[in-house]
Backbone:
């Protein structure tokens, strides 16, 4: 069959040879409504080099794009910047098919690849600051441990001032456009923030250190090529600023009121709480957990100063939707300073204390008294919810001064 797939030229000697996943809607629990891309890059050097590969089902698409430039069997070097399977799932088969002379990964990458796959080839370790010789060119590698896996590393092509940044600075966005300046900036901003919230937020201290290091290099990158979404050639400075802000996890004048509800009692409480917050000028997102995905809640929590979670009690437990989102958020380690638990119950009423326990684990400061109601909230209880919103709003404003 005639090859219809094409590589996309990034610079004179570097091509995008990745795959577009238009259909993926769940990336290990993160709702990817705009799909994704798995980016791989071909560097034309004396030793033609492939940077990363793609998810297993997309191997043929990647190789077809390579074949639009060179014979894939001419690839002499593969560099694996990140071992997660969306970038290495096709690696074992690609190695068998094209038989590259050399394969490189970070020292942790060598270990992780060995644990994930039975590669019948040696993967050589390239340490922090070392270079991979591509013949007439060289690729400098920097370990970026826990960004977001232990093996993660960046690689840098100095002649082109081009940084291959694996997951960092990426986003889940399937598009026919390959560069940032070809895509609506509002879409880029939303998808980059959603990606940061759902993938990188727990590693914010490491992101801060990395940004310091990158700043200290004194290198002005012309192009930053991540493993998902568009290649940055116009506004890398913008995404770098956003990363500095997100990594700092400084709260803004924003609250998230997330709730599950059975017969609308907890919903009424959520709405009353939001009224109190809004009265103090706090921007509030009220999120029904049956209508909002956990990854949308994570996006909203990224810069929020208040997280209030409500749930009825079902069979002595909080509602499963509330347990889902709290488990997810706890793992993402936001630094939301203030919060509250609230909810209704029929007879036993454990949910509020259970939510409080998780919020406390997340180091969220809670009010002395939460609001809990048997059956249906009357005007008095809704007034207490509103007062709670006012109290939380005042506390946040104090902190932001
Ligand atoms: Fe895109 Fe961490 O894999």
Residues:
């Amino acid at each position: 069959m005639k090859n219809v797939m094409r590589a996309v030229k990034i610079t004179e000697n570097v091509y995008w040879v990745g795959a577009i996943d238009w259909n993926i809607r769940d990336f290990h629990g993160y709702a990817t409504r705009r799909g994704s891309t798995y980016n791989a890059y071909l560097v034309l050097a004396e030793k033609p080099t492939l940077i990363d590969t793609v998810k297993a089902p997309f191997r043929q698409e990647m190789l077809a794009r390579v074949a639009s430039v060179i014979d894939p069997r001419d690839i002499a070097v593969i560099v694996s910047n990140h071992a997660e399977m969306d970038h290495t799932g096709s690696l074992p088969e690609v190695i068998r098919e094209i038989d590259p002379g050399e394969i490189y990964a970070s020292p942790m990458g060598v270990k992780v690849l060995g644990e994930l796959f039975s590669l019948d080839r040696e993967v050589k370790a390239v340490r922090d600051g070392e270079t991979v010789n591509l013949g007439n060119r060289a690729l400098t590698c920097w370990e970026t441990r826990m960004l977001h896996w232990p093996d993660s590393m960046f690689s840098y092509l100095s002649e082109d001032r081009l940084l291959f940044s694996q997951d960092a600075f990426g986003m889940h966005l399937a598009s026919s456009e390959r560069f940032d300046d070809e895509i609506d900036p509002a879409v880029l901003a939303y998808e980059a923030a959603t990606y940061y919230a759902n993938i990188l937020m727990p590693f914010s201290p490491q992101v801060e250190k990395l940004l310091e290091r990158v700043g200290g290099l004194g290198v002005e990158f012309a192009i930053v090529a991540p493993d998902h979404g568009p290649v940055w050639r116009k506004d890398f400075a913008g995404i770098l600023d956003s990363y500095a802000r997100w990594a700092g996890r400084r709260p803004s004048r924003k609250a998230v009121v997330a709730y599950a509800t059975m017969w609308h009692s907890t919903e009424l409480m959520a709405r009353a709480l939001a009224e109190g917050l809004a009265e103090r000028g706090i921007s509030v997102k009220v999120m029904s957990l049956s209508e909002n995905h956990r990854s949308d809640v994570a996006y909203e929590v990224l810069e929020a100063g208040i997280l209030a979670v409500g749930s009825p009690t079902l069979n002595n437990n909080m509602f499963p939707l509330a347990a889902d989102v709290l488990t997810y958020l706890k793992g993402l380690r936001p630094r939301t300073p203030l919060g509250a638990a609230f909810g209704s119950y029929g007879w036993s009423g454990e949910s509020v204390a259970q939510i409080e326990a998780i919020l406390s684990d997340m180091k969220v400061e809670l009010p002395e008294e939460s609001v809990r109601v048997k059956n249906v909230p009357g005007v008095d209880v809704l007034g207490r919810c509103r007062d709670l919103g006012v109290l939380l709003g005042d506390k946040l404003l104090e902190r932001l001064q």
About this structure: Residues 82, 84, 86-87, 148-149, 167, 227-228 surround MU-OXO-diiron (CB under 6 Å). The radius of gyration is 24 Å. Residues 379-400 form the longest helix (22 residues).
